[in-house]
Each structure stands twice: as C-alpha cells, then as structure tokens.
Design a protein that fits this description.
114 residues; mainly beta; Jelly Rolls; five-stranded antiparallel β-sheet; RmlC_Cupin_sf; Cupin_2; RmlC-like_jellyroll
Length: 114
C-alpha cells in the first residue's frame, strides 16, 4: 500500500505549473499539480490511457477540445478517456491543486493541436 499527503508534493512556481510525481508504475502515474491564478496546464492527450483529475483546492476552466469548456472546483473529479483532449487554466484567485492519475503508466502524452 502507498499513501501520501498532497501537501508534501505541492510545488508552487511563478513560471509554468509544477508537476510533482508521487508514484510511477506500469499500472499508473500519480501526479500532484499546482497552478497559480492564470497559469495553464496545456491541452494534451494520453493516446493509450485515461487521466482522472481529483480537484483538491481552487477552481479552473477545464478544456476538453472542440471548444468545450467546463468549470472545475474543489471536490470535483474530471475523467479524460484515452485520446480525449484535456487541459486547464486556473480561473480563480486561489491555487488550483489537483491529483492526476493516468492509467496505465505507459498511456503516452502528446500536446493537443491548436
């Protein structure tokens, strides 16, 4: 069993949002993200796996490709299926912190076309 505290992995940055890897196995990759107001997690895809975001704090506009945007806030869960475009911009005053679980661990990554 592995357990962790999100606070141990939060890494604020005034540059790009920081991605802190908690655990990486063949089964999944668990990451904690931290984005300040106005910072963006670039829209991307995982061609061979699902990405599940659990929002810990803050709020963001969640971009799903094809102009689809929804609002995420603390307590929400967003699931991007394999190949689905997803990304976010912190739209609130507080840090947007979430845990991402990509499964399987070799799901791949590619930036979405703009």
């Amino acid at each position: 069993m592995a357990d962790f505290s999100v606070d141990e992995y939060v890494r604020p940055s005034n540059g790009e949002p920081i991605r802190s890897v908690v655990l990486e196995t063949n089964d999944s990759v668990v990451v904690v993200w931290h984005a300040h107001h106005g910072q963006e997690i670039a829209s991307h895809v995982h061609p061979h796996g699902q990405d599940t975001w659990t929002v810990i704090s803050g709020e963001a506009e969640y971009h799903q490709g094809n102009g689809i945007v929804t609002h995420l806030k603390a307590g929400d869960i967003a699931i991007a299926k394999p190949g689905q475009v997803h990304g976010a911009m912190n739209s609130g005053p507080e840090p947007f912190i979430f845990v991402s679980v990509v499964a399987p661990g070799n799901a791949g990554f590619a930036l979405a076309e703009k």
